[in-house]
Design goal:
By secondary structure, the protein is α+β, with helices and mostly antiparallel strands. It folds into two domains: about 35 residues; about 140 residues, Alpha-Beta Complex (Nucleoside Triphosphate Pyrophosphohydrolase). Helix content is about 20%, strand content about 50%. It is built from three helices and ten strands. A four-stranded mixed β-sheet has the order 7-4-9-8, with helices on both faces. The chain has a three-stranded antiparallel β-sheet with strand order 1-2-3, with no helix packed on it. Helix 2 packs across helix 3.
Length: about 180
């Protein structure tokens, strides 16, 4: 990230909402032009962790679930939240095992990203996982998931056809294709 100086000035900051996953703040600010304004900020209490498992045949796994926030079914790479105090790789290993039952021996972090930096401070990481062994899934009580094994190129095509729209999944699969092909 650039080391430019911050042209914004925070006048006041007030927390207006808090739950175990996020908090929302209302800021009064001076904008870079010097005028007064407001800014809303969603602070995340976890990292966003995405994993692209790839087996020896070039297949990957997607997770399908109904997403309450967008009122739609969504196909995504395996992903979840990682505690801010825990190494992102450890969270990725746990999330992959919980959602798909997969245990991987080889891990490569392919990106760090900000998911929507105009309104949130959320940081995400995407990993490629290889040398896979199948185990048992451990879904949360809030999860009703479908697991789909498919060729990696088919998952990439789902991104191009807008069948996968989740930002972390899109970014991860596009970068994975560039790295691997």
């Amino acid at each position: 990230m650039s080391k430019e100086s911050n042209p914004w000035k925070t006048l006041t900051k007030k927390q207006v909402y808090d739950n175990p996953w996020i908090h929302v703040e209302h800021h009064r600010v001076l904008t870079p032009s010097g005028s007064e304004g407001i800014y809303g900020k969603v602070g995340f209490k976890n990292l966003a962790i995405g994993i692209i498992p790839i087996d020896e045949e070039g297949y990957t796994w997607l997770v399908g679930q109904y997403r309450y926030t967008i009122d739609a079914y969504s196909w995504e790479i395996p992903m979840g939240g990682g505690d801010l105090s825990v190494d992102p790789l450890s969270s990725a290993q746990q999330e992959l095992r919980e959602e798909t039952g997969i245990i991987a021996q080889e891990w490569q972090c392919i990106m760090q990203l900000h998911t929507s930096n105009s309104v949130t401070d959320e940081v995400g990481y995407v990993y490629i996982a290889r040398d896979l062994t199948m185990g048992d899934m451990e879904w949360d009580d809030t999860e009703v998931l479908r697991i789909r094994r498919l060729p990696l190129m088919e998952a990439y095509q789902m991104v191009m056809d807008q069948e996968i729209t989740d930002a972390i999944s899109v970014a991860g699969l596009l970068k994975c294709k560039i790295i691997l092909l």
